[in-house]
Amino acid sequence: MTGIVQHPRHLCALGGQQSVAAIERAIPILHTGPGCGFKLHTGLGSYNGFQGGGYSGGATIVSTNTGEKEVVFGGESRLQSVIDGALKIMDGDLFVVLSGCTSELVGDDTEHIVAEYRRRGTPIVFAATGGFRGNNIIGHEIVANAIIDQLLEPRDIIPGLVNVWSSVPYHDTFWAGNLASIRELLAGLGLKANILFGPNSGGLEAWRKIPAAQFNLVLSSWTGVSIARNLNERFGTPWLHWPTLPIGGIETSRFLRRLQEFADVDTTIATSFIEEQERSFHYFFERAADFFLEFRWDMPSHFATIADSFYGIGVSRMLTNEFGLLPLHQFVTDDPPEEFHESIRDNYAQIAPGISSNISFTSDGEEINQVLRAVASSPPIILGSIWDRDIAKEVGGCYLSIASPMTDRLVTSCSYLGYNGGLRLIEDLYSSILTSIQ
Amino acid sequence: MTTEIQVTPKSVVRQEPGVTIRERRLGSITGYSGTPDELVKISLAGQLVERERSFTQAGTCSSFCATLQLSLIQDAVVINHAPAGCSGDFPMFNLYNRYGQGKRKLDQTSARLITTNLNEHDTIFGATGKLLEAIHKAYSTYHPRAIFVTASCTSGIIGEDLESTLDEAEEELGIPIASVSCEGFRSQVWATGWDAAYSAILRKIVRPAKIRRPESINIITFIGEDYFSELLRPLGLVPDLIVPFTKIEQLETVSEAGATAQMCSTLGTYFAAGLEKQYGVPEIKSPPPYGLTGTDMWLRELAHITGKDDIVEQFIAAERNAIEPELEKLKKRFAGVKAFVAAGPSHGHSSMEILQDLGMELVGSCMFHHDAKLDHGDPAGDTLRAATTGSGRMTYSVCNKQSFELVNLLRRLKPDLVIVRHPSLAVSVAKLGIPACFVDDEHLGLGYRGLIRYGKKIADWFRNPAIERNLSRHSALPYTRWWLEQQPFSMLGGEV
Amino acid sequence: MSTTVEQPRQFCTLGGQQSVVAIERAIPIVHGGPGCSNKLFSGMAFFNGFQGSGYAGGNAVPGTNSCEKEIVFGGETRLREVIDGALKVMDGDLFVVLTGCTADLVGDDTATVVSEYRERGVPIVHASTGGFKGNNYRGHELVAEAIIDQYLQPAPKVIPNLVNVWSVLPYQDTFWAGNLQAIRQLLEGLGLQVNILFGHDSGGIEAWKKIPAAAFNIVLSPWTGVSIAEKLEQRFGTPYLHYPVLPIGAVETSRFLRSAGEFAHLQSTQVERYIEKQEAYFYHYLDRSADFFMEMRWDLPAQFINISDSFYSLGISRFLVNELGLKPGRQFITDNPPEIFLDGLVNQFATLADKVSAKVTFTHDGGEIAKTLRSEVFDQPPLVIGTSWDRDLAKQIGGYHLSIALPITDRLVLDRAYVGYAGGLRLVEDIYGAVLGTY
Amino acid sequence: MALVNLANSNIQTREQRLGSIIAYEGTAADLGQRSREGRLHDRTRSFTQVSSCASDCSICLLSLIQDAAVVNHAPLGCAADFSMFNLTNRYGQFKRGITPANAHLVSSNLTETDTIFGGIAKLEQAVRDARERFNPKAIFVTASCASAITGEDIDAASDALEIELGIPVVAVHCEGFRSKVWTTGFDVAYHAILRKIVKPPQTKHPEIVNIITFWGDDVFTELFSRLGLVANLIVPFANIERISRLSESGATVQMCSTLGTYLAAGLESLYGVPEVKAPPPYGLAGTDAWLRALGRVTHKETEVEELIASEHEAIAPELAELRKELKDLTGYVAAGSVHGHSLASVLRELGLNVAGSCFWHHDPKFDNQDPAADSLQHVVKTYGDFPVSICNKQSYEVVNQLRRFKPDVFIVRHPGMAVWGGKLGIPTFLVEDEHFGLAYRGLLRFGHKIADAVNNPSFYQHLAKHTRLPYTDWWLRQGSTAFLGAEE
User: Is residue D36 part of a domain?
Assistant: First the structure.
């Protein structure tokens, strides 16, 4: 997916700045051109559910704003003065220097400069996130690995402590809500989640605890695997990879049972928690059943997801196995590394017994539109980003924004993960359909 | 006896409001358990008698049926002379209205419905004053072409004199203002509500024909999409779907049409017969055009009445050819599938024909009532007989959507698929884990191409009955074990 | 407000049947005409967020479907038949017979019939809910009062910290199930034991039996439920706290929790610790999205208009004014509050915040609402928070629209809640989602 | 040297052309005087936070041309603001009764290999795709830091593609690092339009007046029709055909010289379309002067006088009310240069005091070289002096100043800044519609907006109570210029 892109859904590696902003009291320092940081805040932070800047994001992001001078004569001294200023002005516990296209292309030795500060005891690390190195999901991994490699020391294991590597902050518009849901689900099994990003995640202290975890949970189709591998090499921490968004009754229980097994949590605790959650889920499922049974005669029976594979597969499985819809065509937009393609294909190939979905790996709007024009024989449900509103209209389909960029919704703590997350998505989806028909 | 219809030369002459309820007019019943053959036989022999249930669950009433038809007339207003609770179905009519308008590319507007909101005081001192207030409000807000006033149990029991009140108002405002006697308690057969609405239209709206429009065919229907054009236009005929989404002006001239047909004989029996009696608009009496044979017969009679015999046969042949390949595919898909139908007659009978043509085996059905005869009185119109030639010995029951009986019955018959035609029954079926297909567009399965549309639609659900699976795993039914061990119709009393 | 009504937003006393449906394993038995129960199901439960039948609602509701015969000769024998059947057929713990217009008008002595069964030890009560007697807010109270009068026995001893909650109406409030769960969590957060009485996991008949043992009642409602609490005070001497504002968002929820804590004589440190934690959560998101509120407000609706019952119109107004700093337009209150509560409500709106007040109109007639608003001038598109009826009106006055009150036919509602800290966030998401969704 | 050199695809930055600066602290009067006397020197900040770049400004204008397409030759991150332009587009269409549709934007998605082996092939592909997908009347190719540093020849590529596709394909040199003054991006975009879109006049339409704007509501058409003139708002929501005939208009005006300086002056020097040189139409005096200048150029003196008289009278009572309500309030303005001057005028006109202000940069002169257009001088002369700082959106300085000046209301015109006023508990709003306070009626609109904000400050109070600033106490005790270096 290095082709040209109309309607970008993921941005460049420098987007890792948002992951820094998501760590409590962490300060991103950009060694880049003047517009980069704010553009990325715009695309990932504000015009994506209007999540906003928060503590150290948005307009506060520190940046060298490299100009002609730095491009010609190099920007290292400029970087130093900006870091000096940041240490005085910005009230933070952790500083992450991210390099952009300019400084990397002109060849500033940012790594060395940052290492100097670290030697002097400053909690500061360097992440090479030149825009051309890959997308912001890679950027997220680069940032995490940078902190791990440059800052973390071995620690004694704390039983039941689990590092969670899942939603990419800000890029997943619902990341904060989703991570909170994961914390609650794990707590239900008696596990202590080390969430690392977002409110009440503990900031630098939580990160220093990473080596003490019993295991790492990679709850994502591929993002975070490189982090878990890295941690496994450095600290020997085992890790569980669960590639499907646990959403709705069936998927969440499936995930929790696997987790219980891997973490070998007492079965009775797990079972009673799962049953309680399912009872509540199905109280509402039963009530809504009248609606689904009596309205589906004129509602779409096929759906398409235009999202990253984590959401795509999770939502597909819920809509198919729980609400009786059929997959039309799914678009994987997060540009997974080659090595993951096969497992992702397999996952879509067995959404339900005898039910599979065609998929395309692309984030290019026009390519998506052409496929949809071709396959949509009846009006489908389309779950995607704001870019996909027009094609949904064109093929007479129903539409809900679940992926970035998102400018038709304001998102705060909303979560699409877990039992309640499933109910939430169904409410939002069918409310938008009902609104559109009257 | 078709003399039930008030016949007069000109509808502008005042007539007595209201209709005789179906129990008396058509010998209709709501309780029966047996086989189609037997039911057809005793109905013809005039030996059909009602059996009452000692235990019953909430049903539906005439007021619902009457208001549904009238509230969808685009330039009329319906005033419900009742306590606020009787307007519980207003939001539903409003959604039907907006939704239907959307499909017909009309501006989406809220349904024009008003309740007189009767309270304790009114029940003692009377409420004709409030009724007049409502009429004036309706007139000043919407400037409607007509106003319908639907009665309620309360207005009926406290003996509100609607007629004189409405006449005054009609004098004053100069638009038709019709009373609709659809008090819920008057009939167990809620379909009586259709008759009440149509009688109001016949009395106050329809005008004697000035000209004749032989090519125009009245189709009495609900809210379905206009698939009738597929059948009529090739014969050079124009369908005129009534009453929903029409305007008063259009209803005034239905007397000019070349014939009247209906998508469901239970729905339009009074209206169709009335138009024939009163204005000589011939009624297509053969069963509605669903299923291959049904459609053949219907088309032939339509062609005969409208003088199209010459072209109809080749049209029939062509259509049957056109759908053949896809129909075969669907038949394979549904081969051996055991189906059950729970619906109102005669549309339920039509569904039975469709399922059989799609290659399913009918293991039983349950209709919400049964009319011993129709207003036109012609046995040729017997939809039950038409639908069950060959399957006349299956389990057949009549029950005014008593879900406790239906659930009990289905647990015994264990069908693979159930067609449901009435709100909030589907979920009871689904809780048994049986795919419950609720098809709200009554025209979906119409004619030849309808078979394909219908088959494809339910194929998708049949392929992935996840909702039913999950409900059966996680949701309890509200019935005692004792009940589920009884015979389904053990609560049916003796004949009365 | 007994004038004629266009676009109804509340129904008749028989609507109390939905409150029975909301009690776990309780079975309503309707002694009324054949269509009443179904109409009310369709108006309150289905075409209102598509809440659905549930365990024993919708078509499962036993009913006498009274007809000509019962009207002329009386319906008591018929009623007995149906009760007998119901006791055999329906698997329930509590049976509530509700009368409709027909039965009450022809004067069936339902009370006696039902009491006979009760004397035989059947858990059954009778609520006289003839539709003409009032609206379903009153119907809800009648049902609760019937159970209290005819079924509850004084408790041997009071359970400290046990509180009964009387708040939003099942089904009438489209978000009742989520809201009641939210209220329970909030009060449990203070360390109270909460008897929520309606909805999933509320305990059914056992919970109702515990009512007399409660240390106190909370009426979290502008007026509905006060009569219930008064009755409980008379019968069992249980004191009650009447808190009239539905708490949405941090300011209001914290205010509510403090007065609840005070009334229950809880350690204020314990209360404050909980509040602090919840506020931190709430304000994290308000802070995070502050960019949006401030950068978009220049053109987002400056003025909001509520068209809903006193629960929401008051709760939402206080939230939007005191938390988001929005400007109130005229507020419409549609639940027909009894005379004695009117001044209190008007006063609440007159003092929404220092320098901020709102005009109030009490009506549930869509025609009057439309006329009033069409006659007003809006310098910027207003935000109309009301029912699905109000979509056209919002369009006509060039405003934005969100459905939050009965009837809701443009949304599917499951466990969504607008009450509490998280509820406030949810409401903000929905309001601005509705606005942003228009382009 | 002539202002516009059509032969050259590139132009001088504002630093070079106008001597623009991004750092200053003092007063409006002093800043104006130094500017006029050529004694204005920039200062460097040793510490900085993110700002904006030229690419931002270029794309936002070009992507709103309804039948054009923009190809961003850059890594995907530079496309991060696509979704913002898309909302601006959809929203603007919605307000203008056009069915909302996505903006025509494509990124060539440069990757590591492209930086080594070159990305021109991908650019060509992107342009061809854009042609096929949107069938545009013109395609703009916007450069990026990466494409510029690796030396991609986008001019050659564009010219070749123009011949191949038969529509204008225009290179736009808006790479972020070239200028510290991001408004250079406007100039580059307008230069591209002058170079390849605008045609020499076939005929003249003296009644048509070009109005250089952003995406604000159209408040001009009605106003101008009363003068017998036709308002021609450009370039957002215009089409290529209309833009190609800018040379035929009777005059060009702007609501903000920071935005339109290059285009307005360019149209005059290339095609003799007179530029109306006056302070911007904000505040009574400014609007009067602006209209009179317009009247002179278009020979509508009498109509203008009538208009001025009637409008003054129409708003007088309500304005008096507002002034009473807002009396003694103090405001702080943060906005892009000239529009900042305009907002200051509006505040003063409404009776507020300008406690402080912060403009993103300062142009000591404009391309028309005419002192009549000196907006800063106009404010000072009309309303008196006020504190001014020049700072390219450095929130740490703004926060520092806001805490010092403690204004009653904070008026912002730029995403990302408003929230800092809120976090300090100051009633704040962002003026996204640049025409919101324009002319006479705008004063009233604006006044009511301020009243609403100060009458119910609850939102800001809660925010301030529950939020934490990311700045050290040390910094908040410093003067806001602590990191400004010496004059260069």
Answer: no
The amino acid at B74: Q
Find, among D64, D320, D360, D94, the residue nearest to D212 by Cα: D64
For residue C299, name the pLDDT band (cuts at 50, 70, 90): low
CA-CA-CA-CA torsion sign (D149, D155, D157, D162)? positive
Q: What span, in angstroms and rounded, lies between the C-alpha atoms of D375 and D340?
A: 10
Which tokens go with A328? 């039309």
Q: In what order do the strands lie in the sheet with D230-234?
A: D230-234, D205-212, D249-254
> Is C279 in contact with D460 (Cβ distance < 8 A)?
no
d(CA B243, CA B74): 10
Kind of pairing between the strands at A215-219 and A192-194:
unpaired
Tokens of C215: 């240390």
Residue A167 lies in a domain: yes
The answer to whether residue D279 sits within a structural domain is: yes
Q: How far apart are CA A14 and CA A36, in angstroms?
A: 8
Q: Which of D173, D195, D230 is the last residue of a domain?
A: D173
Q: Which residues pair with A400 in a beta bridge?
A: A383
Range of the structural domain that residue B199 is part of: 54-204
- Class of the domain covering C13-151: alpha beta
Q: How many domains does chain A have?
A: 3
pLDDT in tens, C1-50: 457 888 889 889 999 999 999 999 999 999 998 888 988 998 999 989 99
The CATH code of the domain that includes A371 is 3.40.50.1980
Q: What is the DSSP letter of C356?
A: B
Task: Tell me which chain D residues have a C-beta less than 8 angstroms from the C-beta of C279.
Answer: 466
- Residue A364 contacts residue A5 (beta carbons within 8 Å): yes
User: Looking at the structure, do residues D368 and D440 belong to the same domain, yes or no?
Assistant: yes
Tokens of C40: 């009310």
Beta-bridge partner residues of C136: none
A317 is a domain residue = yes
C-alpha distance from A363 to closest chain B C-alpha (Å): 29
Name residue D254's beta-bridge partners. D212
- A130 has a pLDDT exceeding 80: yes
How far apart are the C-alpha atoms of A296 and A325, rounded to whole Å? 9
User: What pTM does this model have?
Assistant: 0.82
Cα–Cα distance for residue pair D432/A336, rounded to 1 Å: 38
The parent domain of residue A138 ranges over 13-151
Q: What is the DSSP letter of A83?
A: H
* Domain residue limits at D355: 326-487
Q: Give the residue from D10, D48, D50, D410 with the most A CB atoms within 10 Å of its CB, the best one to mutate.
A: D50
Subunits with 3+ C-beta pairs closer than 8 A to B: A, C
Cα–Cα dist B376/B382, whole Å: 11
Question: Total structural domains in chain D?
Answer: 3
Q: Which residues of B touch A298 (CB under 8 A)?
A: 440-441
Distance CA D452, CA C355 (A): 11
Residue B238 CB neighbour total at 10 angstroms: 15
Tokens standing for A372? 């949809």
**Quick check: C344 and C244 in contact, CB under 8 A?**
yes
In a domain, D178, yes or no: no
Q: Is C276 at the interface with chain A, CB within 8 A?
A: no
Residue B26 and residue B382 in contact, taking contact as beta carbons nearer than 8 Å: no
Per residue in A153-186, pLDDT (tens digit) is 999 999 999 999 999 999 999 999 999 999 999 9
Residue with token string 């007003």: C376
Return d(Cα D3, Cα D351) in angstroms, integer: 40
B251 and B398 inside one domain? no
Cβ contact D179–A67 (<8 Å): yes
**Strands D138-142, A26-31: pairing kind:** unpaired
C-alpha distances in Å from residue D113, one per residue of A1, A2, D116, D150: 13, 10, 5, 12
Distance of CA C439 to the CA centre of its chain: 33
- State the complex-level ipTM: 0.78
Q: Is residue A197 part of a domain?
A: yes
